[in-house]
Amino acid sequence: MNAIELNAVSYQHKEFKLNDVSFRVPQGFVTGFIGANGVGKTTIIRLIMNLIEPNNGQILLFNKSMSHHAVELKNKIGFIYSELYLNDKWTVKKIESYIAPFYSHWDDTRFDFFLEKFDLPKDKKIKSFSTGMKMKLSIAIAFSHHAELFILDEPTSGLDPIVRNEVLDVIQEELIDENKSVFISTHIISDLEKIADYLVYIKDGEVILNQFLDDILNQFQIVKGDPKQLDNELIDLTHYIEYNHTGFTALTTHANVFKELFGSEVAITNPTIEELMVYLEKGKIKNKHSNDEMI
């Protein structure tokens, strides 16, 4: 079963547009959702959460529509946003009394466990909390009603590296359960290197990748070598190529061709998620003989 499924979803607001977006988020895995700023990641999350409605298409969570099963589905979702949209004059205790009734499986004991784990005081007002403390409170709330799907929109944005690692460790520790699913949107790609199993990559309103991470990273390779080795046919086998004083660097799914032709004269490595995203975002071939760029 898929935890999330989008089928030909379209949405437009002023100049912003999503056209026929389709992808799957498998149940029981951590799925990273990546793309450049402004590409529509947060909009898609709002569509998934039924905070805005698509112009066309279908969105399913656990094979059900949010518009017809909102109460049931929202009970199954732990939502963590980059900012805490709660009254900052409230204490944690008041926040719990306000939020708990919305969830049929709210667990006071579990909430108290996370407050203690994160050293969050129950009687202090939210306005006195640091950014990291607010994020930890969001996690405590999301993890305290026995959700099955966790949707995280930039959960580590604005956090220092120590708090970021602590947050990721907690996510990883708490969600080692094959029945739990995570959909995490982030521009901090190194976070995904640590926890992601699956990847959805969107570019220019179109889903480019929707696969298990290991399959993606084994499919693409980075090839480095001497530009004199290249001809137009080899360049056509690359998704992106750039040149510098030491040679060329190319992203390709045909590294075997380069290996057969040049053997040890080329270096072939698997890309990191960050390298893959950077090269696919650029998506251009630089002409080594001029400053022109060719698509």
UniProtKB/TrEMBL annotation:
<dbReference type="InterPro" id="IPR003593">
    <property type="entry name" value="AAA+_ATPase"/>
</dbReference>
<dbReference type="GO" id="GO:0016887">
    <property type="term" value="F:ATP hydrolysis activity"/>
</dbReference>
<dbReference type="InterPro" id="IPR051782">
    <property type="entry name" value="ABC_Transporter_VariousFunc"/>
</dbReference>
<protein>
    <submittedName>
        <fullName>ABC transporter ATP-binding protein</fullName>
    </submittedName>
</protein>
<dbReference type="InterPro" id="IPR027417">
    <property type="entry name" value="P-loop_NTPase"/>
</dbReference>
<feature type="domain" description="ABC transporter">
    <location>
        <begin position="1"/>
        <end position="229"/>
    </location>
</feature>
<dbReference type="Pfam" id="PF00005">
    <property type="entry name" value="ABC_tran"/>
</dbReference>
<dbReference type="GO" id="GO:0005524">
    <property type="term" value="F:ATP binding"/>
</dbReference>
<keyword id="KW-0813">Transport</keyword>
<keyword id="KW-0067">ATP-binding</keyword>
<dbReference type="InterPro" id="IPR003439">
    <property type="entry name" value="ABC_transporter-like_ATP-bd"/>
</dbReference>
<keyword id="KW-0547">Nucleotide-binding</keyword>
